[in-house]
Amino acid sequence: MGERFQLKIAGDDLNKGIKDFLIQIMDKNKINNVVVPLLIPSKNNVFPTFVRSKELLEDAKPVAPVLPISTATMVSKITKLSPSPEKILVFLKPCELRAVLELTKFKQITLDNLILISYDCMGAYKTEFYEEALSGGKDIDSEYVSKNLLKGEQDENIRDACKLCENFFPTAFADIGIGFIGTDGGVIIESNTEKGEETLSKLGLEKKEVKDRDGKLEKISRKRKEEWEKVRKDIKGETEGIDNLVKYFSKCIDCHNCMSQCPICFCRECFWESPTFEFTPLNFLGWAKKRGAVKLPTDTIFFHLGRLTHMATSCIACGLCSDACPNDIKVYELFHLVADDTQAVFDYKPGRDLEEEVPLVTFKEDELKELG
Amino acid sequence: MGDKFEPKLVGFFCNWCTSSAADLAGTSRMQYPPNIRPIRVMCSGSVDTAYIWRAFLEGADGVIIGGCHPGDCHYVSGNYKARRRIKIFETIMKTLGLDEKRLWLRWISASEGKKFAETMKEFTEHIRKLGPSKIGKNWSV
Ligand code: SF4
Ligand code: SF4
Ligand code: FES
Questions:
Q1: Distance from B28 to chain A by nearest Cα, in Å?
Q2: Which chain A residue lies closest to B81 (C-alpha atoms)?
Q3: Ligand 1 atom closest to the CA of A322, numbered from 1
Q4: pLDDT one-digit tens code per residue, A117-127
Q5: Is the dihedral of CA A174, A180, A181, A183 positive or negative?
Q6: How far is Cα A237 from Cα A233, in angstroms, rounded to an integer?
Q7: Residue located nearest, by CA, to atom 3 of ligand 2
Q8: Letter string b/e over residues A216-242, b meaning 16 or more CB atoms within 10 A of that residue's CB
Q9: What share of chain A in percent tops pLDDT 90?
Q10: A284 — contact with chain B (CB < 8 Å)?
Q11: Which of B10, B129, B11, B128 is nearest to B60 (CA)?
């Protein structure tokens, strides 16, 4: 494990090169299924797609810079009820990989028979931006590959959450990782798990030593962390105290889109959408009497505070909540801020390690004595 | 009412311990402030954090959760899980500048009527000093 190999790709066409690599893995390992970003037939967007037909796989765009939804949520739809009887290759972004680990801990994904492949991601554009580029006939994918993936430049148009992402490379839990950064030129393949090693062993890849990949990844990570610290401070200032919090969410229409797109919010019977929130006139009369007035819809701040206490310890900072908000509220920034602090209490990092238990389902007898 | 601030407090008390301690304090005629509105729950571990937010948003100046001492929970580990939840809640209050000192967690067994009465006195005085909470004052939450 931890071995690195070279992936030979003709020219700069990474999407084709990686697609061919996936086909090679499938052929040599007798795998018939792959979940991978694919150009939809209307040719103006890319979605994770469960593909079996080699012919349709021709339209795969594994490293397309767009994140319309989280692949983790989709993998949960496929494997929640039972493990897949057949092997499935799953190609995903590092943030989606972290979400897959969290959902596995929550028993929403069964990892058996899944082979997870991830890569050094330089961020995604907002879906709208990407779709417009494709509709306008712009070859945004090639530009992204040559400028951003292969040269490591950060594009100013990528999503805010991506600009601040500190874990933009495959973690130890990607069975197979594809690297562009610190590779001393070219593309490298890493096997990080036994499953990955076994899968790659059938391909006859050429080994490759790289000098300072980890250092280079770490450097980008550190820079983004510094950037986040600045944003963090601003957001903290903007949300301090109940009145500021209300102001921060002043455009919230209680649509719950942020929650429905959050890969971590998996509860089928969400408390916030339960009959608890079907009120009678008496409830409204009571509130109006007590507070003088009730803003309608009510309970919007309650919803966000409640969601924070339920899931912030597992927030993987993907930014999909902000993408989903019809009124452009910076949901992700606030959740990331709270996630940072709550995760630090338990030295927990979501998506870091499958063995690490989610803070809210476990405890130690000998802890937090100051509380009681 | 006058000008004097009377804190409005909500207590989530475990049925097996703190609620019984409250009864004991009552039947033993121990004095404690009437500010607390007790809510009987089956276990400190059954208090969803949503209900704590609800209490604050509806105007509570302080919230106290009372459970069985560590090792004594009738459902084995409800109180340990409650402790983690309260820690997370407190952390979020702190991050968002929502005055985390208004939230207390205390272990009070069924036989500790005196401890119950004293804790309620202490909590009421503590919140009295902090003054009214702003959280429940905003009508557009
Ligand atoms: S809260 Fe937002 S940033 Fe965090 S995991 Fe959910 S969608 Fe992603
Ligand atoms: S998506 Fe935006 S408007 Fe909808 S509930 Fe979330 S924050 Fe509110
Ligand atoms: S039964 Fe009392 S805290 Fe669990």
A1: 25
A2: A363
A3: 2
A4: 999 999 999 99
A5: positive
A6: 6
A7: A252
A8: bbeebeeebeeebeebbeebbeebeeb
A9: 93
A10: no
A11: B10
Q: Is the ipTM of this complex over 0.90?
A: yes
Q: Residue A99 CA: which ligand is closest?
A: 1
Q: Cβ A341–B92 below 8 Å, yes or no?
A: yes
Locate the domains of chain A by residue range: 4-213, 225-367
Question: Considering the entire predicted model, what is its pTM?
Answer: 0.96
Domains and CATH numbers, chain B: 9-135 (3.40.50)
Tokens matching residue A93: 């972004």
The DSSP result for chain B, as a single string, is: --S-----EEEEEETTTHHHHHHHHHHTT----TTEEEEEES-GGG--HHHHHHHHHTT-SEEEEEEPPTT--TTSSHHHHHHHHHHHHHHHHHHTTS-GGGEEEEE--TT-HHHHHHHHHHHHHHHHHH---SGGG-TT-
Confidence of residue A223 (pLDDT cuts 50, 70, 90): very high
Rounded Cα gap, residues A247 and A359, in angstroms: 30
Do residues A122 and A179 touch, judged by C-beta distance below 8 A? Answer: no
Say if residue A85 is preceded by a cis peptide, omega within 30 of 0. no
Report the amino acid identity of residue A289.
K
pLDDT over threshold 90, residue A268: no
d(CA A27, CA A9): 18
